[in-house]
Amino acid sequence: MEKLYIPQIAKAVEATETFEFKELIEGLDTLTPAQGVISVRHVGSFIEVSAKASTIMTLTCDRTLVQFNYRLVIDNSEMILLAVPLPESDYPREREVETDDLVESLPPNGYFDPAAWLYEQFLLAIPYPKIAPDAPALEITDTKASDNLAGIDKRWEILNSLKLSE
Question: pTM of the prediction?
């Protein structure tokens, strides 16, 4: 996938570049090529990126350590600010950072890398925890807290006897 020159996106029909893809994404270990549609729209001070894509990846179950195939599906959109970055010498030695300042940005005359963006989106789509569909369910036993405490250390029994009746 080629990088897109941001000023060229603004000159496209309706300021939008849309294309279908079917290829392996570098750094993402998948069984099948990622395939889908990505659209990049230039909206003046930002670009809006949206994609619908899928691929199949082999994951290891966190419960059973058995490998299983998992279909990763993304249907995401993101707005990326177009801003000229400050030279490093202009940054103050210390700076208060607001949560609103933490946005992704690109230079207005730079390039947008759709493969890198898709890589990030697929990584965020990997489930946590990774549980295989045929993994056994966890058994949760319902025991009283006082029974647990008495089984751990007998000194807690004395404190239990001090409880006020309700």
Answer: 0.75
Q: Of 45, 52, 67, 61, give the one whose Cα is nearest residue 18.
A: 52
**Residue 76 in tokens:** 């995401």
105-106 vs 67-82, strand pairing mode:
parallel
pLDDT in tens, 99-151: 566 578 898 999 999 999 999 999 999 999 999 999 888 877 655 555 554 46
88 in helix, strand or coil? helix
Cα separation, 146 vs 114, whole angstroms: 57
Instruction: Tell me the HSE value of 28 on the side-chain side, using a 13 A CA sphere.
Output: 25
How far apart (Å, rounded) are the C-alpha atoms in residues 61 and 85? 42
Distance of CA 7 to the CA centre of its chain: 28
Smallest CA-to-CA distance from 82 within 108, 114, 48 is with 108
Query: Residue 138 corresponds to which tokens in the numbers above?
Result: 């966890």
Q: How far apart are CA 2 and CA 39, in angstroms?
A: 14
pLDDT tens-digit series, residues 143-159? 555 555 446 677 777 77
- Tell me, what DSSP letter sits at residue 100? G
